[in-house]
């Protein structure tokens, strides 16, 4: 007797999508993003969304304890990188993201790291211990990010257009230093990094 696993697989995927999108506002389609940008091999895991999704404004906290929101980065393509001190691949991404911040300084790209650590007081000592004294991150002591994005995988990077709408994401480690990744970022900035009427 042959058993077909396809229906079971489809059901599992549907259940995962339903569970992962239940806690946040990714069901709010705002506009079609048009023809997707051709991805290099290094970005096969990147998803450029077919429809931009609006998200509610939620507060985060910078390391000085000041409230911050993603709206202050509108007008640029914003890369939000979710990470945690207990995540080894996150530690590998940090120096690459630092270089990216320097490379794109003054361009239409904001990079916003957000630590999802529950013990927020451990984040700065961890960064300093690993030599990332100049790497600033936001903190999320109230788990507000879970209201707008799935946090089941870190590292994870989410891209927001110049109006603050979610337009793409990649979950898992990415070599941000790869030249093809930089070229793709340039195309994302050209497509999503300007406010259009």
Features of this protein?
197 residues; two-stranded antiparallel sheet; alpha+beta; 21% strand; 7-stranded mixed β-sheet; globular
Mean pLDDT across all amino acids: 86
Order of helices and strands: HEEEEEHEHEEEH
The span between the termini is 60 Å
Radius of gyration: 17 Å
SS content category: alpha+beta
Strand order of the largest sheet: 1-2-9-8-5-6-7
- Enumerate the spans where pLDDT stays under 50 for 5 or more consecutive residues: 1-23
Shape: globular
Strand-helix topology:
Blueprint lengths: L5 H17 L6 E4 L14 E7 L6 E2 L5 E2 L8 E7 L4 H16 L5 E7 L7 H7 L8 E2 L16 E5 L5 E6 L7 H14 L5
Parallel strand pairs: 5-6, 6-7
Antiparallel strand pairs: 1-2, 2-9, 3-4, 5-8, 8-9
Q: What does this protein look like?
A:
This protein is an alpha+beta fold and about 200 residues long. The protein has helices at about 5-20, 90-105, 125-130, 180-190, and strands at about 30, 45-55, 60, 65-70, 75-85, 110-115, 140, 155-160, 165-170. About 25% of the residues lie in helices and about 20% in strands. It has a seven-stranded mixed β-sheet with strand order 1-2-9-8-5-6-7. Strands 3-4 form a two-stranded antiparallel ribbon. Strand 5, helix 2 and strand 6 form a beta-alpha-beta unit. The radius of gyration is 17 Å and the shape is globular. The relative contact order is 0.22.
